[in-house]
Design brief:
Number of strands: 0
Order of helices and strands: HHHHHHHHHHHHHHHHHHHH
Oligomer: single chain
Helix content: 55-70%
Number of helices: 20
Number of domains: 2
Length: 502
């Protein structure tokens, strides 16, 4: 089930909302169970067969976490660590089978010069997200950070429908206190107003912006995949269109998830913080898909040694982390190269910062920040080419065009001109305007706001133009209503979220 569908907006959401708060008047436990079961229904609408897989994964990891906690309490550290290793291996084996089996079969066949038939596998939606969420839970239990003995809360923690399909990757400490809070199960008018506003703004990002700009990205990458040469203008139009599409698609989903969750008085962690405003690749990864980059840092980069064993080891750890991050996104060489490019960017970025510090250079003024931001954006666009391309030859064709090797202007540049009329406003929207959280920061819509944790981007509340700072006024309510109707009119051309495939 998609957030941008009539069945979700007019059937699933109202029934789930009313059921939770009706039961919450009588039993918090029943209300939490209702929300967990509703989340399983939300997942099962796509393919009911995988509900059993999800429930089995939840039961296994809950049992493993429970056992690790018991072994810790009994002082049996070796048994606890062995259980952790076996449980993580089982989770990765499940993920690897569904997501990477055919990739490795094809890779082995290429090395041996043989052809092995691919397995008939369908990738379960959200498997990367619920697997990583549960691995983080197991590691936190082993570290003594958390314990969980309430199975209903754990079921809800993993299946909670706003995050289940495409994140964010959740942590136990972020959600369990909210599930245990009595106020969660009582209707709050302010949360409903703010949550609906965030949902509508996220829906508009998806159906009015991302889906429309996708019409200019897909033809360029399809032509490159078919081996057709593209001029510099055509290839850059395609690359920039996809750069805007994936941003507004994924950030739109994240906003919708944030708003939907607030309807239920639960705050999700922020997953995007205006990443195209970043002035370095380091800054970019603090803003883009924040929950994943935090997971990779805390559960992969740091355990590998982080920056504790010298520069060479640090750079190797950075590269290994980003290569695995690329592989997490998809089973293909294009994703691995995308991750490797970002690993290389991060190595250069850290090296530049160290060299600049040794020479006593400052960060420069506004012009320096503008130049570094432009360079960062171009580097991100180039990497997106590999992320989007269907194959390495297709990516090579796109990059050839972007470099000008296939000419600069097409014979008829009207399509590109029309595309730029859509792409340029999207870029200005991403660069110059505040994000949704910043527009509603006084209402503390995210988990970070609830606990007083700041994010990299400065929050310009007080400096925002009046019309961009959201408040529950009649005029704004009318504007949100009209925007919602416009979005509903666009749902006839429903498209899936890009991150569903990851």
């Amino acid at each position: 089930m998609l957030f941008n569908s009539y069945s979700f907006i007019f059937l699933f959401l109202p029934i789930t909302f009313c059921g939770m708060f009706f039961l919450g008047r009588h039993s918090h436990r029943l209300a939490a169970l209702w929300l967990g079961v509703a989340s399983l229904v939300f997942y099962g609408v796509w393919d009911a067969r995988f509900v059993l897989l999800l429930v089995a994964s939840i039961a296994f990891n809950y049992g493993a976490g429970y056992w690790i906690g018991l072994r810790h309490a009994a002082g049996a550290q070796r048994q606890a660590k062995l259980t952790l290793i076996l449980a993580i291996a089982a989770n990765l084996a499940l993920l690897g089978y569904f997501k990477y089996a055919n990739f490795f079969i094809a890779a082995i066949g290429q090395v041996l010069g043989k052809h092995y038939p691919a397995l008939d596998l369908l990738l379960p939606l959200g498997i990367s997200f619920f697997t990583f969420t549960q691995i983080a839970f197991l590691v936190d239990v082993h570290r003594g950070i958390t314990r969980e003995y309430n199975f209903i809360h754990y079921l809800l923690f993993v299946t909670y429908f706003p995050h289940l399909i495409a994140g964010p990757v959740l942590h136990h400490k972020q959600m369990m206190p909210q599930f245990a809070n009595r106020e969660t199960y009582r209707i709050h008018a302010e949360h409903i107003a703010v949550g609906l506003a965030i949902f509508v703004l996220g829906l508009a990002k998806k159906v009015l912006v991302a889906d429309n700009v996708a019409a200019y990205a897909s033809p360029a990458f399809a032509a490159a995949g078919a081996g057709h040469a593209l001029t510099m203008l055509e290839s850059w139009v395609g690359a920039l269109a996809y750069t805007m599409q994936i941003y507004f698609d994924f950030s739109g989903y994240s906003d919708m998830a944030l708003g939907l969750s607030l309807l239920f008085n639960i705050r999700l962690p922020i997953n995007f913080d205006s990443p195209y405003k970043a002035t370095s690749i380091i800054d970019f990864w603090r803003r883009w898909h924040i929950s994943l980059s935090t997971f990779l840092r805390d559960y992969l980069y740091v355990p590998l040694g982080g920056n504790r064993h010298g520069k060479t080891r640090r750079y190797l750890n950075l590269m290994a982390t980003m290569l695995l991050g690329g592989l997490w996104h998809g089973a293909g060489w294009t994703f691995i190269i995308w991750g490797g490019l970002h690993g290389f960017y991060l190595m250069l970025n850290h090296g530049w910062r160290e060299w600049k510090t040794r020479r006593g250079w400052s960060d420069g003024g506004r012009l320096a920040r503008w130049c570094s931001g432009t360079l960062t954006f171009v580097a991100v666009v180039i990497a997106w080419v590999f992320f989007r391309a269907e194959s390495l030859p297709a990516a090579h064709t796109m990059l050839q065009g972007m470099s000008g090797l296939q000419g600069f202007m097409p014979h008829a540049w009207t399509p590109s001109r029309e595309a730029l009329k859509v792409i340029v406003p999207c870029m200005l929207l991403a660069w110059l305007f505040p994000n949704v959280r910043q527009m509603l920061i006084q209402y503390k819509p995210a988990w970070e706001d609830l606990v007083g944790k700041s994010t990299p981007a400065p929050l310009p509340q007080g400096r925002l133009p009046h019309f961009l700072s959201w408040r529950p006024t009649p005029l704004r309510a009318i504007g949100m209503g009209l925007l919602f109707v416009w979005c509903l009119d666009s749902l006839t051309k429903v498209s899936e979220f890009l991150y569903f495939q990851f």
